[in-house]
Write the structure tokens for this entry.
Amino acid sequence: MLVVEDEPAIRELIAVNLRHAGYAVACAHSAEEAETILNGALPDLVVLDWMLPGQAGDAFARKLRSQPRTRDLSIIFVTARVEERDKLVGLESGADDYLTKPFSPKELTARIKAVLRRRAPQLTDDVVRIGGLELNPATRRVTGDRKPLDLGPTEFRMLHFLMSHPERVYNRTQLLDEVWGDHVFLEERTVDVHIRRLRMALSATGHDELIETVRGTGYRFRRG
Ligand code: CA
């Protein structure tokens, strides 16, 4: 999570609550500082204050949406403004949600969870079930037809991502970005190595068949 807020007390309040909810948090006091942080690594979500010194929050959100690398970032606006017209401008500039100050920390984390559930279901703790295969992010357990399956940490993250996005084809570059993270430089065949290990682990209950190789493109997880 990246928190962009110029008021230290509010920035700290948001950061403390997000850390308490289990998220890794970076903070910036301006859009310019946020940009420097984003150049290093991409967070899953940006909590963005509307009224910032220098570049305003809505202009910054539009900028993020206009660049391929940051286009898909989830953005939640935090603002003191209450007018409905401003809310529309905020959503038009590409925010996923909108929170008006003062808000309770509980409300903020609930909104963040809702946005992540919509945009990045593999980042939530929701149990995923497909065709007898069940993955529980909270306990980090995977079962096939109720039998426990033994997966390494990378295979677990890969399976979580694939099960959260069934029927969609992902190429190796996309899987590297999604499973290993942005700015990680690995060879594409690393993906094949981990897909092979994942299939091996799932083969104990025959669920390896859910992972399809799409020739010339990448991989797809079937819905069953
Ligand atoms: Ca402010």
